[in-house]
């Protein structure tokens, strides 16, 4: 059996994995690599392909599924298009052969855990200079503080208007 570039597209890849184990004795599985799926430059303004639902990692004799969060399209959490152009054919895919069975699991992340996972992966492949990342972190802090200040000012004005 061959399962090539399918699991990243479907709503319930865990069910498909369980069915592959049930009906096949052995199989070849191929999926887009995490690096490839994290690259901008496939389609305008996004990382990877828009119809892909999952980031899939192959770990030993198993598959690890992480929902492809919308945050991945932010430059900080994705690789530049230049990384895609430099990628070899071997780096674009992840694959495994299995016989009798294999492991599979979904990793469910919520809130800041999503951002932490995307940062962890980007830090592991180091696409950006440390200075750029430090500047971005400072910009995020200033942006957050300014939004809080504007919100406080608007609430104060609304309170004064209500009194007057």
Task: Please give the structural blueprint.
Elements: E1 2-4, H1 13-23, E2 26-32, H2 34-37, E3 54-59, E4 62-67, H3 81-86, E5 93-99, E6 103-107, H4 112-125, H5 130-163
Parallel strand pairs: 1-2, 4-6
Antiparallel strand pairs: 2-5, 3-4
How does this model look, in words?
- By secondary structure, the chain is of the alpha/beta class.
- It folds into 2 domains: 2-128, no CATH class; 129-164.
- It has helices at residues 13-23, 34-37, 81-86, 112-125, 130-163; strands spanning 2-4, 26-32, 54-59, 62-67, 93-99, 103-107.
- A 3-stranded mixed sheet has the order 1-2-5.
- The longest helix is centred in the last third of the chain and has 34 residues, at 130-163.
The major beta sheet can be summarized as: 3 strands, mixed
Cross-sheet strand order for the largest sheet:
1-2-5
Count of discrete structural domains:
2
DSSP strand count: 6
Global structural class: alpha/beta
The portion of residues assigned to helices is 40-55%
Q: Taking all residues together, what is the mean pLDDT?
A: 91
Low-pLDDT stretches are none
What is the compact description of this entry?
This protein is an alpha/beta fold. The protein is 42% helix and 21% strand. The chain folds into 2 domains: 127 residues, no CATH class; 36 residues.
Output the keywords:
164 residues; alpha/beta; 2 domains; three-stranded mixed sheet; 5 helices; 6 strands; elongated
